[in-house]
Amino acid sequence: MIEYLVAGGPVMIPIGLCSIVALAMFLERMWALRRGGIVPGPFIVKVESLVEQGRYDEAIAMCRGGGSTVGRVLDVAISSRNRPRSELKERLEEVGRREAAEMERGIPVVGTIASISPLLGLLGTVGGMILTFQMIQDEGMGNVGSLAGGISQALVTTFAGLSVGIPAVIANRYLLAKVDGLLMELEEVSIRVIDMLVDEQQHIDEPAEEAAK
Questions:
Q1: What does residue 84 show for φ and ψ, rounded to 5 degrees?
Q2: Cβ-Cβ contacts under 8 Å for 55 (sequence gap 6 or more)
Q3: Total Cβ atoms within 10 A of residue 70
Q4: Where are the domains of the chain?
Q5: Whole-model pTM?
Q6: What 8-state DSSP symbol labels residue 185?
Q7: For the stretch 54-66, what's the b/e string if a residue is b when 16 or more beta carbons lie within 10 angstroms of its beta carbon?
Q8: Band of residue 5 on the pLDDT scale cut at 50, 70, 90
Q9: Rounded distance between C-alpha atoms, residue 45 and residue 39, angstroms
């Protein structure tokens, strides 16, 4: 295996670095995007139960102490419960955009590696073919070993670039799909809590309006 890497020439160094960075970023994002850290089910059930009972201070304390993404979003929702629904939704959308950017952090790196790795392989291929034609020009067609070395370098770098690029494309698509799924769950939970808060506020306002009459 080492012989093949050496045969690929200096272009194999950046290709190897790309593979390490892509793998490290993929593993880091997989850990960061685990469902328990974004939209933990038991946590959501407890917060919704507290909101339904009108125990807002306890719900806010639980959101701030949970350390999850949905906790930070619901903290804003519950803390702003007395605001109009349109303003509440606007604030949640702002928080959601910020959290989405945090969830997508690092994924563009994987996408960039998926794009440049095959190009690095192509660069190595071009270098190997140039070396081959130089050998033909200097020594003619008789030195088969030299010709094979240049062709080998060209093929090895192409194979290496594709071997890094293809998994990086798959990893990039998988991470983006995972983020989209988590954001959808986050939006569904936020809408449920908003509806609960608005309904509760209407129940409070109706007796007040009747008393004023």
A1: -60, 155
A2: none
A3: 24
A4: 2-212
A5: 0.81
A6: H
A7: eeeeebbebbeeb
A8: low
A9: 11
